[in-house]
Amino acid sequence: MLKEIPTSKLTLHQIKFIKNLKKILPNVLSYKYDKNTLNLVIKPNELIFVLTVLKLHTTLQYKLLSSITGVDYPDRKNRFEVIYELLSVRYNSRIRVKVLVNEVTPLTSIYSLFPASTWWEREIWDLFGVFFDSNHEIKRILTDYGFEGHPLRKDFPLSGYVESRYNDKIKRIVS
User: Fold this and answer.
1) pLDDT under 70: residue ranges of the chain
2) CA angle 93-16-25, nearest 5°?
3) Which one of 24, 73, 119, 129 has the largest count of C-beta atoms within 10 Å of its C-beta?
4) pLDDT tens profile 6-36
5) Pairing verdict, β 93-101 and 107-108
6) DSSP codes, the chain
7) Dihedrals φ, ψ of 47, to 5°?
8) What is the rounded distance in angstroms from the CA atom of residue 23 to the CA atom of residue 69?
């Protein structure tokens, strides 16, 4: 289902850009401008195709991956939003690609397109629990190896699952 944007709030350039993008990427679920950044929402199985087209198409050339981040919306069916931010240096343009996934749906790693993505994918897995297929570096990056859970999920308890405190007698932290 394609959501249309009210054209009264867009510039002529933005309207033409969206029309051309719809021809190139017909499977995008929605287009929405947030200030000067176009947001695309896509299905998880379309991720590699969409990012490949955005990177390699001659009229787009989004060759720089600025960041990958995650957001947790626990009341949604697909509770996680994984957001890819891309920059086209040639056309001085930014684009944001959002993918909606649940706890059990893995995303395909974009390591083959953007090698620097492996660190962000590790961080998203560590903090949210979203798994990335084909990323052979998936392991803890910000939490300890024995850590239980994913601390940026909204349902993660504020105090964690294990209580820790400093013991004056033995001069160390005990759990």
Assistant:
1) 1-8, 157-163
2) 75
3) 129
4) 555 788 988 999 999 999 999 999 999 988 8
5) unpaired
6) -PBPPPGGGS-HHHHHHHHHHHHH-TT-SEEEEETTEEEEEE-GGGHHHHHHHHHH-TTT---EEEEEEEEE-TTSSS-EEEEEEEEETTTTEEEEEEEEE-SS-PEEP-TTT-TTHHHHHHHHHHHH---EET-TT-S-SSS-TT--S-TTSTTS-TT-SS--EEETTTTEEE-
7) -55, -55
8) 28
pTM, full prediction: 0.85
Q: What angle do CA 85, 83, 42 make, to 5 degrees?
A: 105
* Whole-angstrom distance, CA of residue 11 vs CA of residue 13: 5
Q: β-pairing, 30-34 with 37-42?
A: antiparallel
Question: How big is the CA angle at 94 (ends 89 and 97), to the nearest 5 degrees?
Answer: 130
Distances (CA, A) of 51 to 48, 102, 164, 166: 5, 20, 43, 48
Which residues have a Cβ under 8 Å from the Cβ of 73 and sit 6 or more positions away?
79, 80, 81, 154
